[in-house]
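User: Assemble these into one structure.

Assistant: Restating your components, then the assembled model:
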Amino acid sequence: MQLKGVLIEDTFAEAFPMWVSRLVITAATPRLACQAADAATGLAISIIGCSCEAGIEGVIPASATPDGRPGVAVLFFSHAPEKLEEQLLFRIGQAILPSATSACFNGLVAARMAKVGGKLKYFANGFQSSKLLGDQRYWRIPVADGEFVLSESFGIGEGVGGGNLIILGTEREKVLGAAEAAGIAIRNVRGAIAPFPGGVCRSPSKPGSKYKEVRASTNDAYAPTLRTRVPTELKSEEQCAYEIVIDGTTEQVVRTAMQAGIRAACLPGVTRITAGNYGGKWGPYHLYLHKLLKNGKA
Amino acid sequence: MRIELAFQPQIKGRVDVSRLQPSSVLQVSMKQLEHQTVIVANNPIPLVEVCRVRREIDKSDELVFSGETQRLIKVGLSMNGGRIMVEGNVGDELGVSMAAGSIHVHGSVGDWCGANEYPNSTGMQGGMIFVEGNAGDQVGAGMRRGLIFISKNTGQYAGARMAAGTILCCGRLGTCPGLGMKRGSIIAGKANDLPPGFLAAGNADDEWLRICYSDLRRSGIKLPETWLEQSPIRFTGDHLETGRGEILIYDQVE
């Protein structure tokens, strides 16, 4: 299949179930809220390295946040609910709590709840207090600019991770431009994140390594400098490949994000768009690129 | 289902309506309801003799008291869910020891609103009370959880012995608010004086207040404009108890 002169390969991305939490971070100004969200999602690039993937879902206007201040929604994904709870505790405590004027609220109603605020309250060293407003309990932790308010519990729901696109082309600048355009298009889809910097990954990985202590290694089939040494996935004219990894709150969200990413990435200099999979043995969600585009709406 | 009980003007004495709970009233037949009793001057009287019962099938799920409501006492006593609406002034002990649900009063309330039921020391344990008028003495006394909103003034000892929860008074608090309170928050426009166990602790620019106000505004409750723009002054206390409670005053303490 060709789309705007770009070959869309007849293949699929293999996605798998993950656990997801949604945080609403608010602060006195949009800049402070974004700053806290950036800090909280920092280095949460891949579960290979840090047991969670995270990213900014979008900006929330003051009229839609619990405390009526500017907010940012962030999504956290992990392979186990216990790991996700551990990461929430760590990241809220280390990044959001110290951020000036911040507050942190649960943004996901789910059957499973992680008691994060109920543990972080101990930072107050006995001076914590709670407020039960409606059916929500909030903890108030005294800090040097007033109080840090956070929800007692955060929802942990079922999400989907591992949606991906691989964008290949002849010139690095043009392929990068296309990949960045795809990253922006994906960020505009509510419920989806592309956790790599700018949404773009230049180091696609494969599981395993020749070194037994290393869990994942460079995907040599896409490395142009190795094309003469290993079986390559690159065609003769292709000099560069960028991967985009997509996590979403539902399979449909990942489909929509992938479709948006493909359409945005079909730019001059891009020769083809493909996706990574493991032969369908690992993940239950098989997201076929042609089907995404044929259906019109994903 | 909406049930309206319009109390007749010829009633003499106070009418104890503690047996009329949304959970029980909304699920019985009209016949059963009419034979339900209320206590008038210590005598059980069938409901049909003191009020007109009107039943409407809609989605509101509320119990409405109207007519001669100022004679009613113990409205929503130990209530554990549902919604009660009172169209007019109401007597003492409204929402005493209630655990859940909401009570809206379009008028003023008597003493012991949301307080404890003697001889228990624990007052309201959950739910919300909205009063569009004044409240008498001992509002929320012994209160442990929940929210009481008073659009005008309260009598003395509001929030006395409070263990937790929130009282909002848009007008003036009577004397000795929060006396003996352990935790919880009392927010008011003005206060006559505070008990000696309260100490000024600067301005309170609290996020939880914003959450609380956002929730109230979504419920259609009108708050004073100044509350949304300025920070209140915080007084912590009662330091003769734990000192973990707070009284937040917007305008002045005289």
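Residues 100 and 227 of chain B are 27 Å apart (CA to CA).
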